[in-house]
Amino acid sequence: MAFITRTGRASGCSVQSLLRRNFQPLFSPHQCQQQRSFTQRQLSKLSTNKLQIYKSTSTNPYINLSIEDHLLRNTPLHSTVLFLYKNRPCVVIGRNQNPWLELNLALCQKGITCPAKPQPQKIDIVRRRSGGGTVFHDEGNVNWTVISPKPGWKKDKHAEMVVRALKRLDISKGNPRVNERHDIVLDVDDDKSSYKISGSAYKVIQHRALHHGTCLLESPYLNSISEVLKSPAEPYIKANGVDSVRSPVCNVGIGTEEFIDAVVDEFKFLYDWDAENASYKLDENMLVHEDAALKVEKIKKGVEELMSDTWIYGQTPNFIFSTTPREKPRGEEVHPCPEDLRPRPPLPSHLPPKLRIFFQFRYGKCLKAGVFNAYHNMGFNSQMGTDTDSEIFKHKLYHIRTWEDIVVSAGALDESCGTPESRARDRHNIAMWLNHLLPPVVGTAVPSPPDVYE
Amino acid sequence: MASIARCLRLARPSAALTSLARSSVARQSITRPFSISAINLEKRYTKEHEWVDISGDGETAVIGISEYAAQALGDVVFVELPEVGKVVKAGDPVGAVESVKSAADINSPVSCKITSVNTVLEEKPGTINQLPEDDSRGGGWVVKVKVTPEGVQEFESLMKEDEYAEFTAASEES
Q1: Residues in chain A closer than 8 A to B93 (CB atoms)
Q2: How many domains does chain B have?
Q3: CB contact (8 A) between residue B100 and residue A155
Q4: Testing the interface with B: which of A92, A203, A210, A332 to mutate, by most B Cβ within 10 A?
Q5: pLDDT score for A269
Q6: Quick one: average pLDDT of A76-81?
């Protein structure tokens, strides 16, 4: 039951088709009757009010994170903003994390099920702009965001606000509190354990600080979370960037709308909403719909960026994949690899027993590669890295369609050993294994703008 | 004139080495007699805790985060670096540091063009905690830049070392 961790995959659709997909109102009909919606104009030219509250009716994670970023960058510098939203099932990795290490990418593409929803549900892969580790979202989880001026900003201030909201709801299961990692945990009396219910992350820009957090209330997929957040390649990858910390999680066991109302109330109390907003026209019941949001150019651009493979996969810091404990690759001084001396699990029995595979990728680009069959004792002479024509250097890792194309072009298996049939079988098995560990993600993300890092 | 200033700069000890280097009074008294132009070559600081140090040619500069910021951030686990060649205005991000779940932008104190990035930080992000104001090889500086004429003007309006010390002391109290 892991919540925050290490491993990533992306949804394969255009902004337009997203509009047609999975639209579920966030708020119940009786509530909607009392509520009004932000127009495109109001979202383009944001209010100058000191206190502002926005609730999204979209469950599209790319749109919600882009609305959030728009609010961070465009609300007035003196304002404090609360934004609440729910996402359809997705995994959200931190700004500087590695999707191949954090996620079971194949499972995200295949989809997960739960007793209430037996149809496989695909999981969107999202890289957010804030720091921290990987979290799972679904409609039983509410995301809360507070954007405030940087001076005087404290990391625990708004997690404490959410704890007060939870306490007001009288949770029978246990006692919520903020822990030393700025997360909210529930101390459960029954088994004297603490379970994480909310994870925090932050983005700080020149004058503004954003704190957002999850809150796991009634997730139907709770039991699948740890499986989604476990990469089959984890024993072989050593990555720069940020690791996740695995924590046991649980549902709080209250309704999402109840929670949203309580957080709004606590926010209003904390910032003295009634005094501040007495003369303002906007109230806390305004909703953001995705059609209005997507008409705002900055939000639309944000969605395109978040959905691009150069953002989701191409922003992955330097990492090495190696099947044997080994030291830094030779001749790599500018961007040396971290050493990875961990013992590795035994190779599957259908692979050549002395197979060694080594890759280094930086922002999706392969810098070093080697597939060797050590029983031929071919050492570095057989590594793909000596042959710059090798397919591995022609594609970004996230553009590989199948590892068969790559392994066939590698001068890895000594042509003087074995039979043509056995070599072909070895290559096929190696490719299948790599397809399992570093699954092709082509077609899961939309076409993207030029790479930032080259 | 420029060459004299450059020599002085070379003779200056690294910021990480000694508090003597922080004595702006001492440095001022040396550099002023030679200074004909309006440019005072001291290191300057922003309210967002970045520093910029323009070298003797009045054009090339190094940018990093202050010791105060490095302490306040906690353990830095990753540093995002910009592309070389990127042109930025004062206040635009030239990278970001991640620490304790927070990705915080590093903003350029002046308008400039990025000429090189400190790749040491890619492998050893903790260097920025240890030697944040060290602009030598192995130090925790972030980018080297070519400052635009507009950027030189902006430099003049930034805080000097003693002013920055007062500024951080005041924000500690509040």
Answers
A1: 205-206
A2: 1
A3: yes
A4: A203
A5: 92
A6: 94
User: Could you tell me which residues come within 8 angstroms of residue A365 by beta carbon, excluding any fewer than 6 positions away?
Assistant: A396, A397, A454
Q: Do B102 and A201 touch (CB under 8 A)?
A: yes
Top-confidence residue, A328 or A270: A270
**Which pLDDT tens digit goes with each residue over B119-167?**
999 989 999 999 999 888 889 999 999 999 999 999 999 999 999 999 9
Quote the ipTM score.
0.82
Question: What CA–CA distance (Å, rounded) separates A124 from B96?
Answer: 26
β-strand pairing of A319-322 with A355-362? antiparallel
A95 closest CB neighbour out of B48, B98, B123:
B98
For residue A104, the model assigns a pLDDT of 95
Chain B environment of A334 (Cβ under 8 Å)? 119
- Give the per-residue pLDDT at A448: 40
Residue to mutate among B101, B116, B121, with most A CBs inside 10 A, is B101
A360 to chain B, closest Cα gap in Å: 14
Q: Which residue of A6, A77, A240, A245 is the best one to mutate when testing the B interface, meaning the one whose CB has the most B CBs within 10 A?
A: A240
Alpha-carbon separation of residue B83 from A286, A450, B87 (angstroms): 40, 13, 9
Tokens 């004058």 correspond to what residue? A207
Lowest mean pLDDT of A1-10, A15-24, A41-50, A90-99, name the range: A1-10
Q: Which of B101, B119, B174 sits opposite A132 (nearest CB)?
A: B101
3-class SS shares of chain B: helix, strand, coil, % to 5: 35, 25, 40
**CA A42 from centroid of its chain's CA atoms:** 29
- Using the Cβ of A152 and the Cβ atoms of chain B, whether some distance falls under 8 Å is answered with yes
- Could you list the residue range(s) of the whole structural domain that residue B121 is in? 2-173
Query: What distance in Å separates the CA atoms of residue A339 and residue A243, rounded to the nearest whole number?
Result: 16
* Between A192 and A158, residue with greater pLDDT: A158
Work out the mean pLDDT of chain A and round it to a whole number: 82
CB–CB of A335 and B100 under 8 A? no
Domain of B83, CATH number, reads: 2.40.50.100
Could you give the CA distance from residue A358 to residue A329 in angstroms, rounded to a whole number? 9
- Nearest residue, CB atoms, B98 vs list A131, A152, A454: A131
Number of other CB atoms surrounding residue B38 within 10 Å: 8
How close is the nearest chain B Cα to the Cα of A270, in Å?
A: 20
Q: Token digits for B12?
A: 């200056």
Question: CB-based contacts of B169: which residues, under 8 Å, 6+ apart?
Answer: none
Burial (Cβ within 10 Å: 0-12, 13-18, ≥19) of residue A50: middle
Each residue's pLDDT tens digit, A390-410: 778 888 999 988 888 888 766
Those residues whose C-beta lies under 8 Å from the C-beta of residue A89, and which sit 6 or more positions away, are: A112, A121, A122, A123, A124, A136, A137, A138, A139, A221
Residue A400 in tokens: 């590989």
Q: Mean pLDDT across the stretch A258-272?
A: 93
Q: Which of B83, B104, B123 sits opposite A452 (nearest CB)?
A: B83
Quote the minimal CA–CA distance from A205 to chain B in Å: 5
Q: What is the pLDDT averaged over residues A50-68? A: 95
pLDDT digits (tens, 9 = 90+) for B16-69: 444 444 444 444 444 444 444 455 567 999 999 999 999 888 899 999 999 999
Dist CA B104 CA B81 (whole Å): 12
The H-assigned helical ranges of A169-246 are 225-228
Considering Cα of A208, then B103, then A215, then A291, what sign does the dihedral take?
positive
Q: So what's the pLDDT on residue A332?
A: 46
